[in-house]
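User: Can you predict the 3D structure for this chain?
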Amino acid sequence: MDCAEFCARLDEELRTDAYADLDASPNGLQVGPDEGEIEHVAVAVDAAAATAEAAVEAGADILVTHHGYVFGSVERVTGRLYDRLEPHYEHDLPLYVSHLPLDGHQELGNAAGVADLLGLENREPFGEMGPEYVGQRGTAADPFTADELQERLGADLDHGGQGVQVLDFGPDVIEEIAIVTGSGVDWLDEAEAVGADALVTGEGKQQVYHEAREAGVTVVLGGHYGTETFGVRNLADLAESWGLETTFVDHPTGL
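Assistant: Here is the predicted structure, written as C-alpha cells:
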C-alpha cells in the first residue's frame, strides 16, 4: 500500500482533522515523506529512539504511535531530539501519530479498549474536550467492588510491575464507570456530574486525592502506559485487515 494512502485511511478512520485545533500533538504523518510502499507496520505507545530502532529491526516500513515527538512547536532539531529522529532519517522510517483522536475513538480507542476489558455496556462518549471527546463511560455488566476493579485491571494492564492504585472513595458497589486513559484525572468533575461511581485513568496528581474524597468517586490509576496500549494494538488489527504485516513494539515505562 502506498504510504500516502495508508496515512489517509488512518486519518479518515480516526477523524484526525476534527482534533486539529484541540491537540498540542500534530497528528497524522509527523516524520518523513508520504512516499514509498507500506507492507509492514510497527505500532508502539511512544515515539522514542528505542521504539524506532525496534521498528527498524523488525523490518517495518512505518512506525505508528500514540505519543509523538512533538507537542506544541519545534524551534530546533538539535541534541536529544536530533538523536531521537536519527533512526527515522537513517532508515527512511516514517512516523504516524494519533494522540487525542486515538483516545476519543469509540471503537478503536484507548478508553474503548479499557471498557472492553471491564465488560461495560450502554457506552457513551465521555471526557469532553471542546466539541469532541477523549474517553468513554458505561455500565458494568457485573458490578465491581473497588478491590475487584483493582484486581481486574492489575491482572491485564501492562503497568510495569508498579501495580494499580485505587483511591477508594466511591460507593461499595461500582457500576457506572468513566474512563479517560493516560493523564485523565482532570475529568473527575465530569465523572461526578454524570453519576459515575469510578473514574479509571492512568496517572494521578496530588490534588486528586482530596477532590475524589470530596466528590465521593473512586479513582483507579492503572498507569499511563498501561491504559494506552489498546489503541495502537487496535490500529495494528486494522492494518492487518488491509493486508499488512504488523509488529507491536512493547516498551513499558512503569509510569
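The mean pLDDT is 96. The longest strand covers residues 132-144.
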